[in-house]
Amino acid sequence: MFLALTLSASAVFSSCSEGNDPEESVPETVPAAVEETGAAAEETEADRIDVLSKSFTRELQSELGLDGYETNILLRLEGYEWSNPDIVAEETTGERLNDAVFNRNEWLADTYGFTIKAGYSSGDATELQTLAAAGDDAYDIAFPQARAGASMAQSGILTDLSSVAYLDFGNPAWSRMFTDMLKIGGKLYYAAGDISVNSYQAVISLLFNKQMAVDYHLDDPYTLVREGGWTMDRFDAMCSATAEDLNGDGSMTADDQWGLILQTSKGGIVMYYGCGEHLAALNEEEEPYWSVGRERSVDVYNRVRTLLYERGSCYECADYDTLSLFSEGHSLFLQAALFHVDTLRQSETDFGILPMPKYDADQEEYVQSADGWCISPLVIPSIVGNKDRAGLIAEALAEASSVKVKPEYYEIILKGKLTRDEESAEMLDIIYTNFVVDPADLYQWGNFENEMIAAMRGGKELPSLLASKSKGLTKLMEKTMDAFEKLSGNE
Asked: Is residue 188 part of a domain?
């Protein structure tokens, strides 16, 4: 039985309700990657990832009908920025990511026997609904928009990945934090990680102007991250130190210099997540509950609201305007999805990449969030006839991508006329180890994520917001849980 907690004043606004201690309820995150050097370390990492390929046999290839099998994969709209760009490549072109994808697919064909063909959606891959109704298993796997996937999962259109043979979510090629946060009642319908760089492009993090940091004699943020001291207080101090009224007219506008420029569409919620808080979380039984409103989450909400909207050091504007302003040197920091690192290819601003700051030094891990609109996770349609084969193909694709595509993606970000330092690679390992889509974003319960962004911007107190929303939010969560319970009863 799933658990839904009522967001009453007594249950929500108290420090920690009995049986729902935040330390017990929020899933444990994966420790940040530890740098290893030398051939032995490389062999160890390869052994940890290439599990399937080392145990694969020709007998299994024959059993699953893989030799010469063409696997069809459904993607979002062709050419769309959030459609997975690394599933197919028709030929080598000299472009690094394209050629890495082509070579990976050739290796998969040589190793396992299957080839890959992509089909493109007219939107967010919701065609899976029509195909399921018609009994058409045209696609073995798909990468829909995450929010669309959440809707389809509740309709019984997607397969519980935790029940599929050959999928190993203990493999470092998969994002453990992503799967842990979205596994409800033992059921997991979506997965992300090295299987596609879309997972990483959708993660929202910080870019910083390296020259401005030097000019203002700021502490090295890379060192702060390594030492665990990259916190909201240090971030706040840097923003305040660099915000300036450049033209001296007494009014801060886009023409002046800011500590941080952030997107209106995401506002302060990204930093709220970065402080280790969630809107919805899972308890030890993997049952969802509303975690927002606990004492720490109220403290985090207030801290983020103060920093972004009361200090006078941060500027919020339309998404793409943030990129041009940062590129023109109007801010120390930029909050943006890492997809836009490539958008800044022509920028003359030398920038580095950082994780979101922790709330304080007591927070153990740096945490990032991916936008449910942008990220396109792996799903397997429930109509698929041979789920064992689909599972092996997905696992093989994830493992091979980890070794053959991800390194090239790192190179493109770090050396392709973008960032120019080795430290950013270290930061990316930290960023990509710990990222999640909050269940409230994925399932869009009451559009509450956007309600909270607006409340922060408008100076509204969090308890006041929750008091007006609690009953409706609880009912919406219960509706989702009821849908999954009914699906479990039909299995």
From this structure: yes
89-94 contacts: CB < 8 A, separation 24 or more? none
CA dihedral of 280, 283, 286, 289, whole degrees rounded to 10: -30
Residues 6+ apart with CB under 8 A from 323: 334, 336, 340, 343, 344
User: Looking at 357, 386, 419, which one is the last position of a domain?
Assistant: 419
* Residue 290, φ and ψ in degrees, nearest 5: -80, 110
Amino acid at 40: A
C-alpha to C-alpha distance for 438 and 372, rounded to whole angstroms? 8
- Same-domain pairing of 85 and 179: yes
Which residues lie below 8 Å from residue 285, measured CB to CB, with a gap of 6+? 3, 185
Question: Which amino acid is present at 377?
Answer: P
Q: Domain tally for the chain? A: 2
Q: Collect all residues with Cβ–Cβ distance below 8 Å to 122 and sequence separation of at least 6.
A: 77
Same domain, residue pair 208 and 319: yes
* Spatial CB neighbours of 447, under 8 Å, sequence gap ≥ 6: none
Supply 387's token pair: 């789920």
pTM exceeding 0.85: yes
488 Cβ partners below 8 Å, 6+ apart? 185, 187
Beta carbons of 113 and 61 less than 8 angstroms apart: yes
Residues 73-83: pLDDT tens digits? 999 999 999 99
Q: CB count, 10 Å around CB of 28?
A: 12
The model's pLDDT over 175-184, given as tens digits with 9 standing for 90+, comes to 988 888 898 8
